[in-house]
Design goal:
The complex is a heterodimer of chains A (about 325) and B (about 270). Helices cover about 40% and strands about 20% of the residues of chain A. Chain A is an alpha/beta fold and about 325 residues long. Chain A folds into 2 domains: about 160 residues, 3-Layer(aba) Sandwich (Rossmann fold); about 140 residues, Rossmann fold, CATH 3.40.50.920. In chain B, helix 1 crosses helix 4, helix 3 packs parallel to helix 4 and helix 3 crosses helix 9. The chains are: A alpha/beta (about 325), B alpha/beta (about 270).
């Protein structure tokens, strides 16, 4: 029933690297800063192509973030990519004051998002970065769903944004299922599947899981709407309000703490406009651990099965409402 | 001439802080001579055209001494001196710590969280080098601020990237909020620390105009090595009642004290 098929596993960091190279080829003001893990965070293509516009800053994220702010104040478009844990947390005060308070166009690449980082374990799995970044004034937060979309999102972050951007992506090869022709517009959610029985709003790697969940639910007679919320801030309020009004239940899914991330961001809109029952699939206020990426996602309930489960519980809890609705339609 | 300007700047610092009823007096007064020399003798700038691309950049990493920056900018002609009396009040362009978003001419960076300015200055210096532009970047630091680790990340990066167009200035008054810097967290041997990080280290008397100007000029001729000027200053300089008293770091005078301080400075002017 879904029209989406995996073109082949590919990491979103590879998509970031391609987008950075493309944007850098088009605009000589694009510069890139490295914090020792250049290839690991997708910046090696740019660094090799434009050595004069790549600056090695060493393992010093706080300084690097400030340097990015200074470059941006002088009209450059700095891209600084490092692991999301270090970008969003170690350099948080530099992001707040030097970048966001000055409202400069710095593109921060938050690599190694989620438990799917795998064997490196809890210290290197970014699970709080979206929460940290989305509370900062002037900041845009983007979390694309696959490699193809990450490439488009990277170019949009570099070429269309005017202020600070945090762009989140993962390490492991994951299903690459969107078409390069699917337009990417910052702040505009994508309805990947229509449906009116409930809505699954997902971001990042969990969008693919949401599509698989919708397929399973379809066979149980539930038509789920699937929304790819690739921009966490500014969040697409209209898409959320429509989902709440038209489907009356929302499951969110993210490879991130449920506290403060996508689930919270959606709930903030829902409770203020059209309260409906919600369930949040994500990390339940805990740290990750070492292991195979797929097994970790399973262990922490970041799967299509977990989304299906949440959807079914949500429906059973609120059975009366569905029963009334079924009678009237 | 510079002495007269410095006295006027000190008077403005005292009146604006008295009017604001909060702010940082000691450090602001201690930097009045350095700011006077920098803005009225060395800096390549145009107060009528604050956004001029060829201007030298001044970053105030220690945002809390904003009163000395504001008073200097006003006396240099960036905005009316009267506006200094709006310091720290609702709706002002003169925020407690500099905020670019409020539109005050001459402010390069919103700053005030210690330890961040040098990194931003490095970004500006790299951009200037990339574009083959000859302006200089100056970054003002407190000595206590050097206890922030990010300063030393930046110190490493500036010499690594051969940023001879960058001058860091350290307000070495030896005092921070909890007392003497060497008791709170030892900084000495400070010059050796910077030398070992690959910087051209220059010391000067932060209250002697010739010494300050010589230091700034020497810093501009260090090839591709960044320079740091360690300016020996006295917190509260110019007002004997508060000189070298760390309790005046974040304190403001009462109206009566303010009048006394201003009379003292008037007396200096008539010498």
């Amino acid at each position: 029933m879904t029209n989406y098929s995996n073109k082949g596993d590919k990491s979103t960091r590879a998509g970031f690297g391609e987008g950075l190279l493309e944007a850098g080829s088009r605009n000589s003001n694009v510069v890139c800063l490295g914090a020792d893990i250049t290839a690991s965070v997708g910046c090696n293509l740019f660094a090799d192509a434009f050595p004069d516009r790549f600056f090695s800053m060493g393992i010093a994220e706080q300084n690097c973030m400030g340097v990015a702010a200074g470059l941006a104040l002088e009209g450059k478009i700095p891209v600084f990519s490092t692991y999301g844990v270090f970008a969003a947390l170690r350099a948080a005060d530099q992001i707040r004051v030097s970048v966001c308070y000055n409202n400069v166009h710095v593109v921060i690449g938050g690599a190694h998002a989620g438990v799917s980082v795998g064997p490196d374990g809890a210290t290197h799995q970014a699970l709080e970065d979206m929460a940290m970044m989305r509370v900062l004034p002037n900041m845009t937060v983007i979390s694309p769903c696959d490699a193809t979309q990450t490439r488009l999102a990277t170019m949009a972050a570099i070429e269309q944004c005017k202020g600070p951007v945090y762009l989140r992506f993962g390490r492991e090869p994951m299903p690459d299922f969107t078409s390069g022709d699917l337009p990417f517009e910052i702040g505009k959610a994508q309805i990947l599947l229509p449906g009116n029985d409930l809505t699954i709003i997902a971001t990042g790697h969990m969008v693919w899981e949401a599509l698989q969940a919708a397929e399973i639910l379809f066979h149980s007679g539930i038509q789920a709407r699937v929304i790819n919320m690739h921009t966490i801030k500014p969040i697409d309020r209209e898409a959320i309000i429509h989902a709440a009004m038209e489907t009356m239940a929302i499951v969110t899914a993210e490879e991130h703490q449920v506290n403060g991330g996508l689930g919270s961001a959606v709930a903030e809109v829902v409770v203020q406009h059209n309260p409906v029952p919600m369930a949040m699939v994500g990390m339940a206020d805990c740290f990750g651990e070492s292991g195979d990426p797929r097994l970790l996602m399973k262990k922490f309930g970041l799967t299509a099965a977990a989304i299906v489960e949440a959807a079914k519980i949500l429906r059973s809890k609120d059975k009366c409402r569905w029963d009334i609705r079924s009678e009237t339609t | 001439m510079l002495q007269k300007t410095a006295t006027e700047i000190r008077k403005s610092i005292i009146t604006s802080l008295t009017e604001a009823k909060s702010g940082h007096l000691g450090g602001s007064l201690g930097l009045a001579d350095f700011f006077t020399a920098l803005y009225f003798s060395v800096l390549n700038h145009d107060p009528q055209n604050p956004g001029w691309a060829g201007r030298d950049r001044v970053i105030l990493s220690i945002g809390h001494v904003a009163p000395v920056l504001y008073a200097t900018l006003a006396h240099a002609g960036y905005f009316p001196v009267d506006e200094l009396n709006t310091l720290r009040k609702l709706g002002t362009r003169l925020q407690g710590h500099p905020g670019r978003d409020h539109g005050l001419p001459g402010i390069e960076l919103s700053a005030g969280s210690l330890g961040q300015g040098l990194s931003v200055a490095i970004g500006m210096a790299i951009a200037a080098k990339m574009d083959h532009r000859s302006h200089r970047i100056y970054c003002l630091h407190g000595d206590g601020e050097l206890q922030e680790g990010s300063i030393w990340e930046a110190a490493m990066a500036a010499s690594h990237h051969k940023l001879g167009n960058l001058t860091a200035i350290i307000d070495r008054n030896g005092l921070q909020i909890d007392g003497n810097t060497e008791k709170v967290m030892r900084l000495e041997p400070l010059a050796d620390k910077w030398k070992s990080f690959g910087w051209n280290v220059i010391s000067c008397d932060g209250h002697d105009f010739i010494s300050i100007i010589t230091a700034l000029n020497n810093a501009a001729h260090s090839g591709d090595v960044p320079s740091v000027i360690i300016a020996k200053t006295m917190m509260g300089k110019g007002i004997p009642e508060i000189e070298n008293d760390y309790r005046w770091h974040g304190k403001v005078p009462t109206s009566a004290q303010s009048a006394l301080f201003l009379r003292h400075l008037e007396g200096n002017n008539n010498l």
